Amino acid sequence: MLIKRPDDIPSSEITPEALYRSRRRFLKQAAFAGLAAASSLALGRGQQVQYQRGKPGPYDTSEDLTDYDSITSYNNFYEFGTAKDDPERTAGSLKTAPWSVRIEGEIANGGTYGLEDLLKGQTLEDRIYRLRCVEGWSMVIPWRGFSMAKLLKRFDPNSRAKYVEFVTLHDPDQMPGQRRSVLSWPYREGLRMDEAMHPLAIFAVGLYGKGLPNQNGAPLRVVIPWKYGFKSAKSIVAIRFLERQPITAWQKAAPDEYGFYSNVNPDVDHPRWSQKTERRIGEFFKRKTLMFNGYADQVAQLYSGMDLRKQF
Predict the structure, then answer these.
(1) What is the mean predicted confidence (pLDDT) over 150-171?
(2) Pairing mode, if any, of strands 287-288 and 125-132?
(3) Is the N or the C terminus of the chain less surrounded, counting Cβ atoms within 10 Å?
């Protein structure tokens, strides 16, 4: 019999901590108070998180929402640590007000804008999107945000603006994970301009009808639902319009594993694990991964003529 040592087990095969905790919580409560009490505790460590779904938008998924507790306690945000529960424990040190964002590059209206200025004239919407992470886990999150295209157009990009880059805050005093050279800080991500202008792309400022928690990227983050989660930069302090494709944080760290596009694609495996299946947080069994995370009808045309195995 082959026994795998811990170092042999890819992260995609490890039961997510949030799922483990929720199962333990469920079994313990069911033994003493029955199924109703256990279900109640699934939301936010025993507190009820009320959320009323509105009229579905054109891109909303009808799938069951991931509970608030899991969304806010199981995170990839290396600025606050590499363990999934590190951000929830350490992100309280981040001061999100006042907050400003530098707008730079191939534009007419550059400058430094306060978050309040960026939000002026924006229509906040609730968008229920899937989130698929490269490690093989997924969630369904009710984001609160606004159109990326509408904000970017405000700065009047010129014809040389082919890409847009997002830069995360670099402040080791507030972000203790940056004291380690896990990645090249500050964290950088980017999109092709037509991707950024797609109606699915949003800037998020909240979730579950509440403000955005620090560990989820407060006060301003990107949400690109057809790409792996690390493409959605958090705690943004700079937006740059560029003529040439930027080098992103994970591209720089491991170019053979993380490409610029990083579209969710079950046919392109990570070098260390398959991407054909995923485990939805809160569920025990795996499900098939959908091309473009289920948004193929909306975004496939962006990549017409491209070899998505090579341009991954």
Answers:
(1) 98
(2) unpaired
(3) N
